[in-house]
Amino acid sequence: MISVVFAIVTAVCNGMASVLQRRAAADAPPDTTLRLSMLTYLVKHKIWLGGVVMTIAAAVSQAVALATGPVALVQPIFIIELPFTLLVASRMAGRKLPRLTWWSVGIVTVSLGGGLAAAAPSGASDTASNWTKALIATACFEAVTIIVGIRTSGNARAAAFGLAAACGYALTAALMKNAMAAFNQGPAAFFTSWELYAAAAAGVGSLFILQNSLQAGSLVATQPALTLGDALISVSYGVTLFGETLRTGPWLIIEILAVLAIGVGCLELSQSLGQIDKDTPARVPAHDAGADGEAAGDQAAAEAAAAAGE
Q: What is the pLDDT of residues 276-288, one digit of tens each?
């Protein structure tokens, strides 16, 4: 129960972070793709830094969730991040959601609950095995998706980078779970575990790739790949690394139907979220507000003087 509660808190924090980071990344110059200059651009925006703070809060909550529950249970719960992101974005934009969107929120939520109940993840080990094979497979997968993203553009690039980010976040979760197991042996074991620093590196790398995905195309391409990719890849890590088990047999039919329903719901929610972002006017970054305000004031004074002269 504790793992479920903290997984939900993580999804809520990630949803807030997604709204804030997306509004900053969408305006990043195209020539910053896969360059450190993108982070240099984003770090100047207070709205993006606010998203980073929420990301850190999410990471802490996620660590607690993974320390108390299976990866195959915790990570799929993060799917509710998308409905929450949509609700936050619509509230910030002052827009009401259509009935179809609300139906999609219900479908995603119910399908997630039904799918997890049918799968009933269990039998998790606190520490992982076969890290070498898992890391090699992950590196190959990341290389393929990133290369595809570099050689394409628009929504195809966004989807490829979104899937690469999803794999990175799933790996981050697996490494974090292993690091939290070391914490049970004391702070010294925790801070000297290689998994802790590998998780930090994977998390930062995934965040960087995600910013490029958000810059490249629409949310309809990015969000489903990110949301479903993270959940499904995390389940595979849970089964192969931590010995977690899922119910099969007749239950597998329910699980497959749940995944399909979630996919359809996520597609509709991504379209709604993309429309909200499209219709939301860009805001002046806080650090530029003073300069822009002075410019506006000078322009207004000049217009007033011209009017007086007439």
A: 766 655 444 444 4
Q: How far apart are CA 179 and CA 50, in angstroms?
A: 26
Every domain of the chain and the residues it spans: 2-281
Determine the residue type at 196. Answer: L
The whole-angstrom separation of Cα 7 and Cα 267 is 22
Instruction: For 151-161, write each residue's pLDDT tens digit.
Output: 998 889 999 99
Per-residue pLDDT tens over the stretch 76-126:
888 888 888 788 778 777 778 888 888 988 998 899 989 988 998 876 677
Q: Indicate the DSSP class of residue 30.
A: G
> Which residues have a Cβ under 8 Å from the Cβ of 70 and sit 6 or more positions away?
3, 121, 122, 123, 124, 238, 242, 244
> Which helix (H) or strand (E) element contains residue 297?
helix 286-309
Residue 168 near residue 131 (C-beta atoms within 8 A): no
CA distance 183 to 242: 17
Angle at 74 between CA 237 and CA 225, to 5 degrees: 65
CA distance 114 to 133: 32
Return the structure tokens found at 245: 């088990």
Q: Where are the alpha helices (DSSP H) in 128-193?
A: 131-151, 154-183, 187-191
Report the chain's mean pLDDT, rounded to a whole number. Answer: 81
* Of 169, 189, 173, 170, nearest in space to 181 by CA: 189
Residue that is written with structure tokens 């139906």 in the block: 103
